[in-house]
């Protein structure tokens, strides 16, 4: 539900523009796997929060709380570093 919106909009629907610009730069340089790496990075950094919620809480988390977390450029930069370090096979 949440991931399809991320993939279809390349994260532009919910996340700040500086983060989206970085994702698109990486997409153009490294290819489509970057999109999956960013999604996996978002899930990995949210693991503890997600394990504490029910299904409805998880949906709200993805819709509201997760995008707010990346309003900080520092958090977005850390996410991009994590996404770049991940290998999807």
Automatic annotation (TrEMBL):
Membrane spanning stretches = 20-43
Q: Which InterPro entries match?
A: Rab-GAP-TBC_dom, Rab-GAP_TBC_sf, Rab_GAP_TBC_domain
Pfam family name, one:
RabGap-TBC_2
Cite the Rab-GAP TBC domain residue spans from the record: 1-31
The organism's superkingdom is given as Eukaryota
Q: Which UniProt keywords apply?
A: Membrane, Transmembrane, Transmembrane helix
Q: Does the keyword Transmembrane helix apply?
A: yes
Q: What is this protein called?
A: RAB GTPase activating protein 1
Native organism? Canis lupus familiaris (Dog)
**What's the encoding gene here?**
RABGAP1
């Amino acid at each position: 539900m949440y991931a399809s919106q991320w993939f279809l909009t390349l994260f532009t629907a919910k996340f700040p523009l500086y983060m989206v610009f970085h994702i698109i730069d990486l997409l153009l340089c490294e290819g489509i796997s970057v999109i999956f790496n960013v999604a996996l990075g978002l899930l990995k950094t949210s693991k503890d929060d997600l394990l504490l919620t029910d299904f409805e809480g998880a949906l709200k988390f993805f819709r509201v709380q997760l995008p707010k977390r990346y309003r900080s450029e520092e958090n977005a930069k850390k996410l991009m570093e994590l996404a770049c370090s991940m290998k999807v096979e």
